[in-house]
Amino acid sequence: MSPDPLPAVHDGLLRDLDPVVLYRILALRSEVFVLEQDCVYLDPDGRDAEDDARQLWIADEDGAVLATLRLLRDPDGTARIGRVATASAARGRGSAARLMTRALELVGDGETVLEAQSQLADWYGRFGFGRAGADYQEDGIPHTPMRRPSTR
Question: Within a domain: residue 13?
């Protein structure tokens, strides 16, 4: 008997998402960033609604979102990954890595940036990201600006 297959990586634009899926994505982001990390801020910052903003997520067989990230395009055309979140019960299973891999497939050979929580900078380094500036504090959490250069 073979092991259960890994749940699929889904992606879509805000306008195409089922409202229940969007609710579950936003709920997971609030659970991780607002409740776990005690960062009180308005998560829906307007960027999710941009025309080319993509949500990526992995859900279990019941539809619960296990991990998510968003992929944006900055005004200069640079891709931006953010809001990477994994449910506490789903951590350590490679879900965020699968989301990162898919996001970078969507970006292709273009430049990509992100603002990593500093304790995860080495993890993002596995995907070709390097430090792109000085560390800084955001909501009491150290962050590191990171960049993956274009391969064009």
Answer: yes
Which residues are registered as beta bridge partners of 82? 70
- The angle at the Cα of 128, spanning 126 to 129, to the nearest 5 degrees, equals 95
Please count the structural domains in the chain.
1
Nearest to 129 by CA among 85, 82, 88: 82
Residue 46 lies in a domain: yes
Q: Is residue 33 one of the residues assigned to a domain? A: yes
Could you tell me the pTM of the whole model? 0.92
Contact (CB, 8 A) for 40 and 138: no
pLDDT tens digits, 3-25: 557 789 999 999 999 999 999 99
Cα separation, 83 vs 33, in Å, equals 9
| Displacement of CA 76 from its chain's centroid (Å) | 20
Tokens of 55: 């949500």
CA distance 83 to 108: 20
